[in-house]
């Protein structure tokens, strides 16, 4: 056991504006940011203030180290001033320590050494990091552990990619069911009429076409009505939603530590649709009774009127025609967004009675049930393989398994592109 100050030195170097920008993934460590396909509105106007990280240095986000926001730099690059950069001494393999620092046990230590007023905003400064104790296997054993874990990560990444590909195919199949039902109805003999919008096409002649704002209330409830500092809520941000589902367990936050964007109060029957980063297609129907769901102002909250079946509205907003219309009317390349006033003007076709809407909902749910079951199974398998990976890493880096005799086999070829599947769905950046 040695303190981190015996294994790493502090690197504070600025003034290298020509180096590439690096970012931290909570799953896979530090990576080069794809500036050509940047999907975040971030202007790198003062790159001379960014910190230089040399290939092999460890960089960590001071405010999110407790979540595992740490990793070795794959190339010489720049990280945000909010990062700490440390250079390994010869006896330290930075990849080994990246694995060690992301274990649950070590992150508990990070919490002990971090400082701040609010727990989830604590910072781990260099002065505290260098005092933390760490395990120190011999350098050859560190190298061996890293080689083993990278090979296992490659196998796990292939598994996750295969499951994601399956989920994409099943979701596409479900979307076809939804699209047909909410645009054509269930009666094959019904007559059709042109809608008021070319993108809607023809709709059943007895359906009504009105702007979305005539069917719903937009952003009906605000967190501003709350005053209790002890109020705790589950925060729905853009990164936690994909079309029709949540991607992770929602974080619980105290009112006094609420992010400035946590303002939209959700109720059962609401549908939320992202108005920023619209390429993510973040749409979710709230199908639970709760008084503690708060969404980011990056969502528009649609509360259906009395003549609208809430679940039917949820399916309409998930439909390909609606989503494509949102994308077509979003402004911006790096950070596409749509004004809520524009969203409210979209023409939407609805059956005239709630009973007909409910019949369509029942049809969609019946046809989609096997697909939903398969999707949930695939998601559960991804979650389980991640838990297995966490246990495997913890056992390897703490010496619970002896890997000194391990040798890679013909199937243990590792590539950086292959390991990319370990990341979450494009939303796990800690920047």
Automatic annotation (TrEMBL):
SUPFAM superfamilies: DNA methylase specificity domain. This is Restriction endonuclease subunit S. The keyword DNA-binding applies. Keywords: DNA-binding, Endonuclease, Hydrolase, Nuclease, Restriction system. It comes from Luteimonas yindakuii. GO terms for biological process: DNA restriction-modification system. InterPro entries: Restrct_endonuc_typeI_TRD_sf, Type-I_RE_S_subunit. GO terms for molecular function: DNA binding; endonuclease activity.
